[in-house]
C-alpha cells in the first residue's frame, strides 16, 4: 500500500476545495437535507456546473471531451465531493459515465468514441444497462436474448429485467446471444441500441415502496445498425466483464466516506432515541465504526493497485462483499435502536433503493426502514451477489476447486 499522494494531485485537491467553496452555498447542509424535488433540481444544475468547469471526465482524453488528467485526480475529486456531501451527478451517471463511457474508451471504435463520449459527458445522452434476464442474473452468460444479423442491421428479440433508469434513458447497452452453438460465454455480443427503436417496450416494475426504479425491457424485432457493436462480434463477454470492473475503483474511495457520514447519523439516532448510554448499543456502534475504518484501509489498498495498474483484481470482490454485508448490520442496528417506533414510517424517505440515504438527510423512521428493507438488502444483490463474490474469492484467492456446474 502506498499512502502518498503526488504533489500534482494535492495541488488539484486545493483547486477542487476552492471550487466547492465558491459554488456550494455557504451553509451547505448536504444534499440529503434538501426536500426530494429540490434535491433533484439541485443535482441536475450541479452536474451542469461540474461540466462547465471541466470537472467531468477528468481522466478521459481531451479529444472526447475529457480533461486528459489521471485516475488519481478523479479519485481526489470523488473524495472531496463526498466530504462536502454533494454528488458528482445523478445516480444514473454511474451507468452512463462510469460503465458505458469507460467501456467505450477501452473497446469502442474511433467513430464510436467521438460520437458517444462527448454526449455522455455533457449529459445529452443517458444510458441504461440491459444485462439481466428473468433466467440469467448471476449466471449472466446463460442469457437468451437473441440478435441476428439481417443485411446491415441486427434484429434483437428477447427480454431484459431489473433495468434501472430504462424509462428515462436515451440508449441501452444490451448483451445478446449472436451464436447459439458455441459454449455460452463465446457467443455473446455487446450492442448499443437507442431506446426510441421501434420494437422496444419498457414496463416499470412496482417495488415494495410503491416506487418503480426497475423495469422490464422487451425487444420484439428491434433493428439497430450493424455498426452498433462494441468489441468483437461474439466477443461481448470480455467487454461486459471489463464494464463491471469500472464501477469499483472510485467506490473504494467513496465508500468509507459515505459510510462514515452514515455512522455519524446512526450515532445521532441513538442519541435522539435516548439509547446512546446503553452498553450494548455502544458496543455495536463501536463495532460499526471499526468496520468503516477497515473499509477505509481496504479502500487504500485497492486504490493503490487501481492507480498503479488500472486493475482491481479480486480485492474488488472483498470490498463489495464487505460493504454490502456491513450495511445489513447497520440497518438492523438502526431498527433495534428505534424499537417498535421504527416500524411506523414517517418523515424523510431516501431517494433511491440502493446505497445509503444521502449525506445530510435528517434521521427519520421512514429513512431507516427504507434502508433496512430495500437499500441494504439490494446491496448484496446488484453488481454480483454476496454468494457470487464468495465463489470468486474462494476460487481466485483461496485456490479452491471450481464450483461444479448445476444441472
Ligand atoms: C438495485 C438493483 C439494480 C439493478 N440494476 C440492474 C440494471 O440496471 N441492469 C441489469 O441488467 N441488472 C440490474 N440488476 C440485476 C442484478 O444484476 C441481478 O439481480 C443480480 O445479478 C442477481 O441476479 P438474479 O436477481 O437473477 O438472482 P439469481 O442469480 O437468480 O440468484 C438468486 C440467489 O441464488 C444465489 N446464487 C446464484 N448462483 C449461485 C451460485 N453459483 N452459487 C451460490 N449461490 C448462487 C444468489 O446469490 C442469490 O442469492 C439490478 C439489481 C438490483 C438489486
Please characterize this protein's 3D structure:
This protein has helices at residues 7-23, 36-52, 71-83, 93-107, 110-122, 236-272, 279-309, 315-338, 365-379, 386-396, and strands spanning 127-130, 146-150, 153-160, 171-177, 188-194, 200-205, 214-225, 229-230. The protein is 47% helix and 13% strand. Helix 1 packs parallel to helix 3 (71-83) and helix 6 packs antiparallel against helix 7 (279-309). The site of flavin-adenine dinucleotide has 20 residues, from strand 1 and helix 10.
Helix-strand layout with pairing:
Layout: H1 7-23, H2 36-52, H3 71-83, H4 93-107, H5 110-122, E1 127-130, E2 146-150, E3 153-160, E4 171-177, E5 188-194, E6 200-205, E7 214-225, E8 229-230, H6 236-272, H7 279-309, H8 315-338, H9 365-379, H10 386-396
Parallel strand pairs: 1-4
Antiparallel strand pairs: 2-3, 3-7, 4-5, 5-8, 6-7
Bound molecules: flavin-adenine dinucleotide (FAD).
Flavin-adenine dinucleotide binds next to β1 and α10.
Main sheet characteristics: 4 strands, mixed
The overall pLDDT average reads 93
Order of helical and strand elements: HHHHHEEEEEEEEHHHHH
Structure ligands: flavin-adenine dinucleotide
Q: In percent terms, what proportion of residues is strand?
A: 5-15%
Spans of at least 5 consecutive residues whose pLDDT stays below 50 are: none
Determine the number of helices (DSSP H or I, runs of at least 4 residues): 10
Judged by helices, strands and strand pairing, the structural class is alpha+beta
Give the end-to-end Cα distance, rounded to a whole number of Å: 43 Å
**Overall body shape:** globular
Question: What's the alpha carbon Rg, rounded to whole Å?
Answer: 22 Å
Q: How are the strands of the largest sheet arranged?
A: 1-4-5-8
Question: Helix amount, in percent?
Answer: 40-55%
Number of strands: 8
